[in-house]
Amino acid sequence: MSRDQILANLRTSLASNRSWLEKEASAAPHAAPPFVHPPAANLVAQFSAELAKLEGRTYPVADAEEALEVIGRLLDEREARQVIAWDLEQIDLSGLPALLAARGVSVLDARVHGAARKERLQTLEPVSVCLSGVDCAIAESGTLVLRHGPGRPRLASLLAPTHIAVAHRSQLVRGLGEALAFLRERYGAALFDPTSHLTFISGPSRTADIEMTLSLGIHGPPEVHVVVL
Questions:
Q1: HEC profile for 102-155?
Q2: Mean of pLDDT values over 167-181
Q3: 154, 199 contact by CB (below 8 A)
Q4: I want to staple 143 with a disulfide (CB 3.0 to 4.6 A). Which of 160, 163, 202, 223 is the partner?
Q5: How many distinct structural domains can be found in the chain?
Q6: Which pTM value belongs to this model?
């Protein structure tokens, strides 16, 4: 079955069930999920501790200059000369374009739509680092929340083996309920206008087989580094 046929079937099914779905949605409780842990005095420390349990790394920094030093070191250690990234202005880190230019690091176009999708993915596959901002970060679970859309490609957090994310302390929230409220306040009804989904990233990709042998990096980056300003 072709992609167009699958989408047509989904549209037909949604149209025939819309009234029931709207009734069920309106009847469902909309209270924020309860918190998992007691309140923490320092959300950055809590986020760092939870992400460390998932094999991720956090770098709390004092300012943009220190953030650039961390990112530069990570790029140098991986000998990165290309990155897959959000549009740099959307990462919201002053000096980032100059840092990449000084190191001779180019930002590749991560759009992979259309007939040339396969060839474009093959071109991007060898890139060692992807670089993104975040919309918010959940301290209780060490989770990054990314809203995709124009200038914010999903591949900038999924394809390369090393994902470097830039977050600000103002974007840290305690739990999932606060994250959802944060997104609603920022985007309102337009939350899904440019995209069909959000991405929640809780540490490096991990998969366990039937013998419970854990493997990192099967469905995404095996390394996640978060710089928190």
A1: HCCCEEECCCCCCCCHHHHHHHHCCCCEEEEECCEEECCCCEEEEECECCECCH
A2: 95
A3: yes
A4: 202
A5: 2
A6: 0.85
